Amino acid sequence: MPALRTLALAALCAFAFTSISHAADTTAAQQLAHWSAQAGSPGNADKGKVFFTTRHGGEWSCASCHGSPPTAQGKHASTGKSISPLAPAFNPKAFTDTAKVDKWFRRNCNDVLSRECTAIEKADVLAYLNALKP
Length: 134
Fold this sequence. Notes:
Elements (H helix, E strand, L loop, with lengths): L1 H21 L5 H12 L5 H9 L9 H4 L7 E2 L6 E2 L14 H16 L5 H13 L3
Antiparallel strand pairs: 1-2
Helix pairs in contact: 2-6, 3-6
């Protein structure tokens, strides 16, 4: 029985460590580099700004909830729920968790475009967001 407790404790510690380390497993700059590499070209901040502020055939743009520029607290267009600033210079936690980045790109792109964003669209938006400074 002590061996089972030791194994259970080790598994719990390993789970806790991976959960903690995963919470900040990336940076906005690393995300930009990743999506630029996936796209085969660097993100373009000017294109990202246009993409971010444009409605793509639907009723929302990225800016509808995140603001323009996305440097202050935003508000979800339909629920009214508060949204932290999206630009990394104004929110140090922005784009630091790969799983959350993937989740929110998937959800938000689907809301704005009715499809997932392409790698270059993600790179362009990240280039725009990374370029915003206080």
